[in-house]
Design a protein that fits this description.
With 242 residues, the chain is mainly alpha-helical. It contains twelve helices and no strands. Keywords: Cell outer membrane, Lipoprotein, Membrane, Palmitate, Signal.
C-alpha cells in the first residue's frame, strides 16, 4: 500500500515537473527572446508575450532591452487585464526613470488602467448604474490625465486625455449625486444640502449639478427654510431657461 502511494506521489511530481517545463521559457539569446516577444505583442498573444518579457526582465535586468521590456510589460499587462501588475510596473519604472522621454505615455497608461478598474463589462452590457460604486479609481484616473495635460500639453495623448477628463468628471459628479440622494432618502437634510452644493461648486457644468438642485430644494422644504427654498427655486428656473 505504501509502495503504491509513493509511486503515485512520484508520478504526480513528474507530471508537475513536465507542466513546469512546458510553461518555462527556453534559454536563448536575449535578442531572440525579445524578437519573439515583439511578434506575440503584435499578434495580440498577451499571455505568451508576458512570459517572455518577464523572462527577459528577470534574466537580463540591466540588459540593452531593459527599459523597453518594462514599457512592453506595462502595455501587455494592461491589454491582458492584469491591472494591479500594470500599476506596479508603472510605479517601478517611474521610480527608476523619473525623467524618461516617454513619461507622458506612462501617465496616460496609468490613467487608462485606473479608468479600467472602474469599468465592468457586464454592468455596461446591462446598463447598470455604477454611480454609487467606489470612486477612488476614477479620482486616480482624473488626477493622472489632469497631470498629463499640465506637464505635457502638446503630447500626442493630450486630446484623448481631455475627452476622458470630461467623462470622468461626469462620473464623479454622478457619484456625489447618488450620495446626496442617499442622504435625502435617509432624511439627513443638511447632509443632502451640503453634498448638493458641493456638486454645484465642483462640477457646475454637469447634468448632475442641475439635478442636485432638485434634491437641495426637497431638503430645504423638509426643513421649512424659506430663503433656501426661494434661492434654489430661482436657480432651477434659471437653468430651465438655458
Amino acid at each position: 500500500m505504501k509502495r503504491q502511494y509513493l509511486l503515485g506521489l512520484i508520478t504526480l511530481l513528474l507530471l508537475a515537473g513536465c507542466a513546469d517545463n512546458k510553461d518555462a521559457v527556453p534559454d536563448m539569446p536575449p535578442s531572440d527572446l525579445y524578437t519573439q516577444a515583439q511578434q506575440q505583442l503584435q499578434s495580440g498573444d498577451w499571455a505568451d508575450a508576458i512570459k517572455k518579457l518577464e523572462a527577459l526582465d528577470s534574466r537580463y535586468p540591466f540588459g540593452p532591452y531593459s527599459d523597453q521590456v518594462q514599457l512592453d510589460l506595462i502595455f501587455a499587462y494592461y491589454k491582458n487585464g492584469d491591472y494591479p501588475l500594470t500599476l506596479a510596473t508603472i510605479s517601478r519604472f517611474t521610480r527608476l526613470n523619473p525623467t524618461h522621454e516617454r513619461s507622458d505615455w506612462i501617465l496616460y497608461m496609468r490613467g487608462l488602467t485606473h479608468m479600467a478598474q472602474d469599468s465592468n463589462f457586464m454592468h455596461t452590457l446591462f446598463g447598470i448604474d455604477r454611480s454609487d460604486r467606489d470612486p477612488e479609481p476614477v479620482k486616480s484616473a482624473f488626477s493622472d490625465f489632469k497631470r498629463l495635460l499640465e506637464r505635457y500639453p502638446t503630447s500626442q495623448y493630450a486630446a484623448d486625455s481631455r475627452i476622458r477628463l470630461l467623462a470622468l468628471k461626469n462620473r464623479l459628479a454622478e457619484y456625489d449625486l447618488a450620495s446626496a440622494d442617499f442622504y435625502l432618502r435617509r432624511k439627513a437634510w443638511i447632509a443632502a444640502i451640503n453634498r448638493s452644493q458641493e456638486i454645484q461648486k465642483t462640477y457646475p457644468d454637469t447634468k448632475a449639478a442641475h439635478e442636485s438642485l432638485e434634491i437641495q430644494l426637497k431638503a430645504y422644504k423638509a426643513l421649512n427654510l424659506e430663503d433656501g427654498i426661494q434661492q434654489t427655486q430661482t436657480l432651477i428656473d434659471l437653468n430651465n431657461k438655458k
